Each structure stands twice: as C-alpha cells, then as structure tokens.
Automatic annotation (TrEMBL), chain A:
Identification of the protein by name: Cobalt/nickel transport system permease protein
Keyword Metal-binding part of the UniProt annotation: no
Species assigned in the record: Geodermatophilus saharensis
GO biological process annotation, one example: cobalt ion transport
Transmembrane segments: 23-41, 47-66, 73-94, 114-135, 235-257
PANTHER family: SLL0384 PROTEIN (PTHR34857:SF2)
Location of this chain's protein in the cell: Cell membrane
Signal peptide segment: none
Membrane topology label: Multi-pass membrane protein
UniProtKB/TrEMBL annotation, chain B:
The protein's name in its UniProt record: Cobalt/nickel transport system permease protein
Pfam assignment, any one: CbiM
Keyword Transcription regulation: no
Protein species of origin: Geodermatophilus saharensis
KW Cell membrane (keyword) present: yes
GO cellular component: plasma membrane
Swiss-Prot/TrEMBL keywords: Cell membrane, Membrane, Transmembrane, Transmembrane helix, Transport
Length: 259, 234
C-alpha cells in the first residue's frame, strides 16, 4: 500500500503527472478555498447565471487539465444527494409569489434560491473533488502544516490519515470473520454482535495508539513530527495554482461592474 | 448530512468559523489534560476509529439500519475535549477528501457536530451520571440519553443558524418540523448504537472508558487470615 493508494482515504486520488498534480499541496488548498469563497460570494439571482456558467467552465477546465476522469467527478457529486432532495423541496415550501410549473404551484423565490444553492454546492464539490483527485492525503496534511494549522491538530490528522486504512482494514477482517462463522446481520440481536465488533475495534485502535506512542518514545520521539525546511514556492507556481480562483474572481468582478 | 458551501450567508459562516476555531483551541488544551503527551497518537487513532465506524451499518430494528455519528460515544470513551478534536479532524478529512461538507462551511459543521452535539450530549450524560446509580447500567443509560439528545440538539442549532443566516425564504416552522422530526428518529438510532458499543467496551476494558472513571474501585489487598508474617513477606 504505497503513497496513499488503495484504502478508503487514498481512493479519491487519481495518479497522474500533470501541472495540477505537481502544485504544492498548500497552493492547491488555498486555490480551492479561494474558489469556494468566490462562488459563495456570488449573489443568488437569475441574472448571475452566466457567472455560474463561467465558474463551471473554469472548474471543468481545471479537471480536464488534471486529467480527472468524468466518472470520478460524477462519483464526487454523490455526496451532494441529500442536499439535492432539500433543494427540490425548497420551491414547494418557500414563501413569496407563486408560479405555475407543470401544473405545480411553486414559489418563485424558492425556485431561484434552490437553483442558486444547487449551483454553488455543485461547483464547490467539483473543486474539492479535483483537489482530492490531484493531492494525496499525506500531501494534504503537509499542506495544512504549511498553512499553519496548530501543530497538535496536524499530528492528530497525520496519525488519522496514516492509520485510517489500517483501522478500516481491521474492521473488514472482523466482518469477514463474522460472516464466515455464519453471521447474518438481521434483527435486534445483530445489533449486539455488530456493536461488539465496534467495541473491539475501539479497544484495538486505542491499544494501537498506546503502542505507537511507546514506539515513538523508544525512537527518541519528543512529541513533535520532524519536518524538513519547506522549499520556497516560486511566484510562477502560485500564479498557476491561483489561476482558477483569480479567473473566477475576474468573472465575479465583471458581473459586479456590469450590474 | 453536512452543511455545504453557500447554504448560510457569509457573516454566519464567519462567526461559526471563529467559534469553531476558539473551541478547537480550548479543546487542544483540554485534550492535553485528558491524554497528556499521548494526545496526538491516541486522538489520531480514535479519529481513525470514528471514521471507520461511521461506515458500519448497524441494524437498529424494524428492518432499518443506521450509522453512528459518534460524538457522545467518543466523549464518554476518551473525554469530551478529545472527542471535539476527533470530530473536527474527521470533518476536515471528509471535507477535503470526499467533498462532504463545504470548505467555507467547515466552521459551521464543527460547531454543529463537534461543539453542540458533544457539548449538549456529553453535558446531559454527566448530569445523569450524578443522578443515576453509580453502576455500569447507570453510565449506559446516561450515555444513551446524551447520545439521543445530541442529534436533535445539533439539528435545532442548525435551524437556529438557518433562521439567522439562511439564504432561503422558508417558513421556519416547516424547517423545524422537518429537521426535528427526522432527527428525533436518528437520535433514537444513535442512542441504541452508542449504548450497544459502549456496553461492549465496558464489558471487556472498563479501564479504558474515560466516563467510567468513577466506577473504578481500588483493589482491596488484604492478607489471608492465619498467614504468618514471614510467609506474607515472601
């Protein structure tokens, strides 16, 4: 299981060698966050539909540049589903003047808001999916470290990223063991069995944490994660990385000036 | 379901972001008291456990199954401050690697699922631990009640934020009824799973359970009657 491949956390990563993949993780993080901020700052108004279209073109161009398969992007959008249900309900329950659509009386403001919210959520999910597809979990942790996330939080995060695959693997082996002994997960009795598995998983994870700590002490650990001096990032790299939010910002600015 | 980008207006997101940053800062200090210098590996492994166990489907009766959210369970197992840190880290990983929950809404999600769910749920369970008999069953009942309340409490906090900074013009009563009703049911599932998992840990390793510290009794060491002094020394 090399550099973040396989396992539930590394599954989002698409190994390629593109300009987007080569960006330092903290540049990508800043770019995606700035892009989300621009998208969130755009007004919810039908007049702004061209701006949303522009953002979509930009983020899809970034995905194409990073050679992220369309199926991967589509799978990324699945997390949005519960939210889509909410957005579909919005025109029905929202207040304000009603319009007739296909025989249903729908709120005009509800329709506008639902469309805008869906557009915003979809755009930022797409951007985050491209981020996850072009940056390994380990690099993301290093990126957050360079962005001055508190050191203890960075350590907790790096232990979680390091051991998430191990712990989920343990869970999978316990399920295989259970099912090979004829377990069928039905009825209230099954809750006790599955809960016992989760309980055992907690005990094993906690004990593994204690062993990891002792192993670190034995190797002279002093509670800090060693990190070499971070290489300086040239201005050109920053510009490449920030091209996405900067052009999105330009679209927003054009809209504000045009209005 | 995590709050996505653009759902609440910018001032609300900024305020919840600041509250979340403050709470995580406090939790970093509190977790150090709970776990001392072992904080990073133990909290990291606990976060990995929370992440893994959220993928498990538990049968909760009547042909339905649910998954654990785990705020109160983690708080009773390893302490409330560590639980807030673990929830934060899990939310961060879900937002960054699975696009689940918006990056600009991360503060909102940490406040709802870390601060409110853990704070209210664990607060209630501590209160009940004092009132109920000092037994394992009492602890399980307290944790179950806390886990149940944590889910509608987070949902109510969300409705409150929506009233302040929601961008949709929706009658609040409708949001409250929909969110409240659904989350009461989810809360029952959460309580059942929390009690079952906590019971399993309590039966094998009660010494690991942070919330069971008051149940531990010092082992009584007594010399066997009729034992001669020099024999006892051997």
């Amino acid at each position: 299981m090399g550099a973040g491949h396989g396992g539930p956390l590394g599954a989002a990563y698409v190994a390629r060698d593109t300009a987007v993949h080569r960006l330092p993780a903290h540049v990508s993080l800043v770019a995606v966050l700035a892009f989300a901020l621009v998208v969130v700052a755009t007004p919810l108004d039908p007049a702004w539909a061209p701006a949303y279209g522009g953002y979509a073109v930009l983020v899809l161009a970034a995905a194409a540049l990073a050679r992220v398969p369309a199926a991967r992007l589509a799978r990324g959008l699945v997390v949005e589903l519960p939210f889509v249900l909410f957005a579909l309900l919005l025109p029905v329950v929202a207040r304000g003047p009603r319009v007739e659509v296909l025989g249903l009386s729908l709120s005009e403001s509800g329709l506008v808001t639902a469309g805008g919210l869906l557009a915003k959520a979809t755009l930022s999910v797409l951007a985050a999916t491209v981020l996850a597809a072009t940056t390994t979990p380990q690099d993301l942790v290093r990126g957050l470290q360079r962005l001055r996330l508190p050191a203890v939080l960075v350590q907790i995060l790096s232990f979680m990223v390091r051991y998430a695959d191990v712990v989920t693997g343990e869970l999978r082996r316990m399920r295989v063991a259970r099912e090979s002994r004829g377990f069928r997960g039905r009825g209230p009795g099954a809750l006790r069995v599955v809960a016992a598995t989760a309980g055992a998983l907690f005990v094993r994870s906690y004990e593994r944490g204690e062993r990891v700590h002792l192993a670190m002490l034995a190797r002279g650990g002093d509670g800090r994660l060693p990190a070499g001096p971070a290489p300086a990032v040239p201005v050109g790299t920053w510009l490449t990385g920030l091209a996405l939010p900067l052009s999105a910002g330009a679209v927003l600015a054009a809209g504000v000036l045009g209005a | 379901m995590h709050v996505p980008d653009g759902f609440l207006d910018a001032p609300t997101s900024l305020v919840t972001g600041a509250v979340a940053a403050g709470a995580v800062g406090l939790a970093l200090r509190g977790a150090h008291r709970e776990l001392d210098e072992r904080t990073a590996p133990l909290a990291g492994l606990t976060a990995a456990f929370v992440f893994a166990v959220q993928m498990v489907n538990f049968p909760v009766g009547a042909g339905t199954s649910g998954h654990l959210i785990g705020g109160v369970l983690t708080a009773v197992l390893v302490g409330p401050w560590t639980a807030i840190l673990c929830t934060t880290v899990v939310l961060l990983v879900q937002a960054l690697l699975f696009a689940d929950g918006g990056l600009t809404a991360l503060g909102t999600n940490v406040v709802l699922m870390g601060v409110v769910a853990v704070g209210v749920g664990y607060g209630l369970s501590r209160l009940l631990v004092r009132l109920l008999p000092r037994t394992g069953t009492g602890l399980l009942a307290a944790a179950g009640a806390g886990a149940f309340l944590s889910v509608p409490a987070a949902a109510l906090a969300f409705v409150g934020l929506f009233a302040v900074g929601g961008v949709a013009d929706v009658p609040l009563g409708a949001v409250l009824a929909a969110m409240g009703g659904a989350h009461l049911l989810i809360g029952i599932g959460e309580a059942l799973i929390t009690v079952a998992v906590l019971g399993a840990v309590l039966s094998v390793r009660p010494d690991l359970v942070h919330g069971a510290a008051h149940l531990r009794r010092p082992a009584d060491l007594a010399t066997r009657p009729g034992l001669r002094a020099e024999e006892a020394l051997r």
